[in-house]
Amino acid sequence: MGIKVDRVVVRHLRMPLVHFFETSFGRTTERDIVLVEAIADGLSGWGEVTAGENPFYNEEWTDAVWLLLQDYIVPRVIGRELASAEDVAPLTNHIRGHKMARGGLEAAVWDLEARQAGVPLWKHIGGGARREIPCGVSIGVQDSVAQLLKKIEKELADGYQRIKMKIKPGWDVDVIRQVRQEFPGIKLMADANSAYTLADTDRLKQLDEFYLMMIEQPLAHDDIIDHATLQAQLQTPICLDECIRSAHHGEQAIAMRACGIINIKLGRVGGFLEAKRLHDVAQKAGIPVWCGGMLEAGVGRAHNIALATLPNFVLPGDVSASKRYWARDIIVPAVETTPQGTIAIRDSPGFGYDVDADFIRSITVREQTITSGESRN
Fold first, then answer.
1. Active site residue 150
2. 314/364 same-domain check
3. How far apart are CA 126 and CA 142, in angstroms?
4. What are phi and psi of 256, to 5 degrees?
5. Number of domain units in the chain
């Protein structure tokens, strides 16, 4: 069918979280989100850049994303005759890193193409292995263990199928022990966000007694080799996150036996094309995957739902209800979960929800429209 993006609108939104979210990087109370709208033939496709406010998860952050989109990413795609949305990623591949910024536009074009075809995004990317996706929650470091236990109790009451708790030195073994004593039968995992080194191996080995589903990214954000060394000494599977930025990284990690599970985040790998490739690599090797979250607003959340319908997303992901994070989301209706802790996929064209244009306008900090014909760096 072909696609030609005529205009791209980039918006910087500011949204307060309903509750702070703390990891080993620090505490977040509000999100600065960059939204990308790709327009062609009167239709709009929407993408969300999942970078944080600071370059702590990876090298990307809000202000850098704005400049990358404006000066490098959008000008390479806009006005070009594309055979399909798969052509977007190759046009920006020579930009080193900054995959979240690149993935925001790429996801918008996939959504646009799905809307042009009149099909849901999940179907357009080759998903649909399930009509409902299983959901877990990610709970940040709390002010006290009592507060953590209370939050876990609430999330379980809401039906969520898996609890992920953030850990860091000083908030790990003893805290997990208390969680296990209180909730002995739940699906529980720990996410370290690169807070440890191999010098902490003996401490991390203590986590084996708690029969966790996995320990996510315990070591450096850019490391695979040390994770292979650590995995050989642990009974608990390691799940890799930050260090897997491509399907090739996935192949390397699997070959080295550095992990037993891979977390796939759409932005981290640069969009749907590479996410599907990574999914296929893991599936071929018998490595299960799940969909990680980056405190997304509704557009990114809806994209994650579509992604999680691919067949190898067999573990509950971080995709949860909008109300866990936002008093009001930027899509209508808000994402909701069933009492069984699942999200039903929607059959409307594109990512399946309407954007709340009035609310988006009210929380927009800055906005820029880029048209075809502008110079390419």
1. no
2. no
3. 39
4. -90, 0
5. 2
Question: What's the longest Cα–Cα distance across the chain?
Answer: 62
For the chain, how far is it from start to end, CA to CA, in angstroms?
28
Residue 260, both tokens = 């037993």
C-alpha span between 252 and 237 (Å, rounded):
17
Angle at 283 between CA 272 and CA 117, to 5 degrees: 35
CB contact at 8 A, 17 and 325: yes
Across 22-36, 168-182, 274-288, least confident range: 22-36
Q: Say what the pLDDT of residue 13 is.
A: 98
Active site residue 276: no
CATH of the domain at 265: 3.20.20.120
Domain that holds residue 29: 7-118+356-371
Is there a single domain that holds both residue 287 and residue 210?
A: yes
CATH code for the domain of 84: 3.30.390.10
* pLDDT one-digit tens code per residue, 8-21: 999 999 999 988 77
- The two tokens of residue 129 are 């292995």
Distance CA 292, CA 295 (A): 10
pTM exceeds 0.90, yes or no? yes
Given the residues 164, 168, 265, 276, select the one marked as catalytic.
265
Residues 6+ apart with CB under 8 A from 245: 99, 268, 269, 270
Predicted local confidence at residue 373, as pLDDT: 62
Closest C-alpha to 123, from 347, 290, 335: 347
- 20 plus 76 within the same structural domain: yes
Helix axis angle, 272-285 to 298-307, nearest 10°: 40
Asked if residue 376 is part of any domain, the answer here is no
E-only strand ranges, the chain? 7-23, 26-40, 43-49, 132-134, 136-139, 162-166, 188-191, 215-216, 238-240, 261-264, 289-291, 331-332, 342-344, 354-355, 364-371
- Whether residues 332 and 237 fall in one domain: yes
Asked whether residue 376 carries a pLDDT value surpassing 60, the answer given is no
Residue in 99, 164, 166, 168 annotated catalytic:
166
Residue 377 belongs to a domain:
no
Judge if 86 and 41 occupy the same domain.
yes
